Amino acid sequence: MGITAEPGVILEHLFRHQAGRMTAHLTRLLGPAWLNVAEEAVQEAMLRALQTWPHQGVPENPAGWLFRVAHNSAIDTVRRSKIFGDKTDAMVAELSRSATAAPHDPELEEQLRDDELRMIFMCCHPRIGHESSVALSLKTVGGFNVREIARAFLADDATIAQRLVRAKRLIRDQGLTLEMPHGDELHQRLDAVSEVIYFMFNEGYAALEGESLIRQDLCMEALRLGRLIASSSIATPSIHALVALMAVQAARFPARTDDAGDIILLDSQDRSRWDQKLIALGFHHFDRSMSGDEVSEYHVQAAIAATHARAAGPGSRDWPAILDLYDQLIAIKDSPVIALNRAVAVSKVHGPAEALAAIESLDANHSLRHYHLLLAVRGQFLLELGRGSAAADCYRAALECRCSEPERRFLQRKLKECEGDKAYD
Amino acid sequence: MSQFMLLLYDDPSGWEKLSPEEMQKALEKYMAWRKKAVDSHRLTQDAGKVIRVQGGKPRVSDGPYSETKEILGGYYTIEAANYDEAVQKALTHPHVEYGLAVEVRQVYGT
After folding, report:
1. Is B38's Cβ below 8 Å from some Cβ in A?
2. Can you tell me whether residue A390 is helix, strand or coil?
3. Which of A1, A27, A51, A194 is exposed most, by the fewest CB atoms within 10 A?
4. Could you tell me which residues are beta bridge partners of residue B102?
5. Burial (CB count <10 Å: 0-12, 13-18, 19+), residue A219
6. Given this structure, which CATH class describes domain A334-425?
7. How many domains does chain B have?
8. Which of A50, A58, A145 sits opposite B15 (nearest CB)?
């Protein structure tokens, strides 16, 4: 691997992506009980790069360089710490063999993808709780660190750190392996993995500003993991639907906020700003999800996303079809967010009065009284009914809730709109 | 234009907290800054050796020279009209952004 004299351009997220792949790979060689050793070796490699590349230039194959240095660091640790006892030499030999793999070998590429898959499947083992699965997946395969994960989930560092410690201890104590499950177990695990990936995506998608750079990374990471599974031999129609859903939603990122960072609602979005490659990817996977009889939650969500995406313009959105899909979705999975989104579709098809009735049960739900989206949607329906001051009350209440800065500005704009409509009430 | 040395002190614990993404961002900043310097050198990771003369006899011991945890990590040569300008430039070095120390010294005769 040669070194160029002139510093080259490093691919975006190179370190983060390579950190994930190398951690997965080294963990497979060392065994999941030694996940910590793998992580430290990877961290060491990047530290070395940080210290030397500014002076020596970026190597011709940066990923290969990191790969080799991480392996050497692991070898040092294995030798020094003697954690493998009399199997030390064998482990060193295996690590050395792996370290000298040809950098652009397609077989190596294949192996690394496989390692990542195994890693995320292990992270989603049923004995590791959902929250820990999310954190562990992001830490190991995602290449995020504790602080980044904490920020993304609005938790504190200590909580996330604890979750990771417990998860790794559990892996060690219970002897969890990187073997892929089979049959029913595989099916269940795939469900768990899908849930974790979808959760990551939604958390990332919900962000609009501030930490949104992290959270947009979260979205793209979720999409990447989904695609990894979708392109493997264990892909199912449901996974394709999940990828379709994420791709189409992610495609809208560039259009969701304007230059001032303010929210633009779906109907007002400039469709030319949607990422066409992602839309195409979404439709590609949507088609692949149609094989077989399975209709999962992801299928319906993907269909909704695709229907939105197909609209030629704001006026031509097929709301009756969308409402129909929401009816299907709510039968599979009832949640406040889904009910709210369905209510918006109801308002477009049957008008705001019926939509208000549709969210009555949510209004009665005590635990949702600080949910700003519910209040904002209610305000919107009231505004459409000409009930300006009732609408204003909703927006004022919404402003008291926790929300991001762009959301706050949006709510304030709506409040002004209500106050302008005072004549009606 | 005079030449100034920027001596960069390392404190390994400062880097440990960085995530892969953050390390990459740091790397990009270092590389960008490198372009503005006349040259730059990285010293090896070890503490090195120190020669002191005691009782008229040179004694070699393990480094570093100072008692602090900080080890000289590398040095840059930059051009500046005077100390003020050199310091102003040094303040923009990412090393400072990451909470690490930089010593600025003028090269004699430049």
Report:
1. no
2. helix
3. A1
4. B8
5. buried
6. mainly alpha
7. 1
8. A50
**Chain-chain contact of B74 with A55 (C-beta, under 8 angstroms):** yes
Q: How far apart are CA A184 and CA A112, in angstroms?
A: 26
Using an 8 Å CB-CB cutoff, list chain A residues near B74.
Answer: 55
ipTM given for this complex: 0.83
* Burial readout B60-98 (b: 16 or more C-beta within 10 A, e: otherwise): eeeebeeeeebbbbbbbebebeeeeebeebbeebbbeeb
Domain borders along chain A are: 236-317, 334-425
Domain containing residue B12: CATH number: 3.30.70.1060
Q: In the predicted model, is pLDDT for residue A298 greater than 80?
A: yes
Instruction: Give the tokens for residue A15.
Output: 């370190």
Q: Considering the entire predicted model, what is its pTM? A: 0.83
Asked if the Cβ–Cβ distance from A145 to B35 is below 8 Å, we say no
What's the pLDDT band for A57 if we cut at 50, 70, 90?
confident
pLDDT band at A256 (very low <50, low <70, confident <90, very high): confident
| pLDDT tens-place string over residues A165-211 | 999 999 999 999 999 999 999 999 999 999 999 989 988 877 655 54
Residue pair A237/A292 in contact (Cβ under 8 Å)? The answer is yes
Domain around B89: 2-106
Residue B9 phi, psi (nearest 5): -100, 135
Amino acid identity of residue A380, one-letter, is Q
Q: How far apart are CA B85 and CA B93, in angstroms?
A: 13
Per the structure block, which two tokens stand in for A180? 């892929």
Nearest CA-CA distance, residue B30 and chain A, Å? 6
Residues A257 and A260: their CA atoms lie apart, in Å, by 8
Alpha carbon distance A151, A215 (integer Å) = 9
Answer whether A15 sits within 8 Å of B40, measured CB to CB.
no
CB of B27 within 8 Å of a chain A CB? The answer is yes
| CA-angle at A282, arms to A279 and A284, nearest 5° | 110
Beta bridge partners of B7: B75, B103
pLDDT per residue as tens digits for the range B49-105? 889 999 999 999 888 777 776 788 889 999 999 999 999 999 999 888 888 889 999
Q: Hey, which residues does B52 pair with through a beta bridge?
A: B59
Strand locations in chain B, DSSP E?
2-10, 39-42, 49-54, 57-62, 71-80, 102-106
